[in-house]
Amino acid sequence: MFDFLEETLASDELITSSGRTATLSWTRPAPGVMILEPNTGGSKNVVISTAIHGNETAPVEIVAELISGILTGKYVLKVRLMVIFGNLEAMRKGERYIGIDLNRLFSDHYLRYKDCSETQRAARLQQVVADFFQAESDKPRLHFDLHTAIKPSFHVAFGILPYLQSGNYQQDMIAWLQSAGLEALVVNHAPTSTFSYFTSNECAANSCTLELGKARPFGENDLQQFTGIQQGLVNLVADQEVAAVEVNSALAVYKVAEVIIKSSEQFKLNFADDVENFTAFPKGFILASDRDVKYRVEEENGYILFPNNKVKIGFRAGLLLKKDDLSAITLVAS
Ligand SMILES: [Zn+2]
């Protein structure tokens, strides 16, 4: 049988570019991209992307299993589905990226850099996703971009909601995120150059970046820890109803208080390398210092997310978060 993951890892050549089963048809509009459509028409447009960072393999394995399950009839498909393996060259090499972090290049940010495999890939992905949504533009649009974090995390699985000027997030999406077992949501405070911000802002999709555990090489993932998201995706593509948002749930909500930027070689994080995501620091603590700036916790408690000393100068070296709850998000019906 056609193996999407195997063919994608082998080369960019599309040996098998389309096909059908008794209940659906599929096409591959670009390397690492596949569209599956039920014969009866899909109720929604759903994009699931993985490996925007090439070494984050667990979501790739989960999505590859989902696709083969759909093709063999193990799983029901009731939506138009686009699946994406993002950074193919990096994926083949087991690296996060080759030249530039692909998740800093969307919303045309790729135009700011010298032409390379990642700038070309960002342009291609923007196009195929926009075309996919446009083809049946009257249907609801969803995009989940699946990642695993570099560091261990106090919240094992969490989501990052892209900045929305309205501040209104679709309640069905939040309910689905809860049903998939996410422990926390981080609400972004400003536009970014990520894939999920692009689909949210430019394609009017309900989008979220999901962080699902720690990055490991292919074959070394303990998929047991991902059963919540696996079942969630099966329900999503079958267009199964999920329970309504549980407002008083344990789901933690964080807002971005400050973006920590590395602006010189003097940049230094003032805590150990192995500090987990969402570790709390007390008011007044200086999280990082740079040539002429100090990043201090201003709230009662500050929480660190994605600390990374090794980013290039001018890039984000971490986020300082403040804690909130679900009432901080305005939920709207679709
Ligand atoms: Zn990632």
What does this 3D model show about the protein?
There is one protein chain. The protein has 334 residues and is an alpha/beta fold. It has 2 domains: 4-237, 3-Layer(aba) Sandwich (Aminopeptidase), CATH 3.40.630; 259-323, OB fold (Dihydrolipoamide Acetyltransferase, E2P) (Beta Barrel). The protein contains 7 helices and 18 strands. The protein has helices at residues 4-10, 57-72, 88-93, 117-135, 171-179, 195-203, 227-237, and strands at residues 18-20, 24-30, 33-38, 45-50, 80-85, 141-149, 158-161, 168-170, 184-187, 206-214, 252-261, 268-269, 280-282, 286-289, 294-296, 301-305, 316-324, 330-332. Strands 1-2-3-5-4-6-10-7-9-11-17-16-13 form a 13-stranded mixed β-sheet, sandwiched between helices. The protein binds zinc ion.
Strand content: 25-35%
Query: N- to C-terminal separation?
Result: 38 Å
Major sheet: arrangement of strands? 1-2-3-5-4-6-10-7-9-11-17-16-13
As a whole number of angstroms, the C-alpha radius of gyration is: 20 Å
CATH top level label of the largest domain = Alpha Beta
Sheet having the most strands:
13 strands, mixed
Count the E strands: 18
Helix proportion: 10-25%
The CATH topology name of the largest domain reads Aminopeptidase
Tally of contiguous helical segments: 7
Element order: H for helix, E for strand = HEEEEHEHHEEEHEHEHEEEEEEEE
Total number of distinct structural domains: 2
The ligands bound in this entry are: zinc ion
Shape descriptor reads globular
Instruction: Write down the overall mean pLDDT.
Output: 93
The protein's oligomeric status is: single chain
Low-confidence stretches: none
CATH-level-4 superfamily name of the largest domain: Zn peptidases
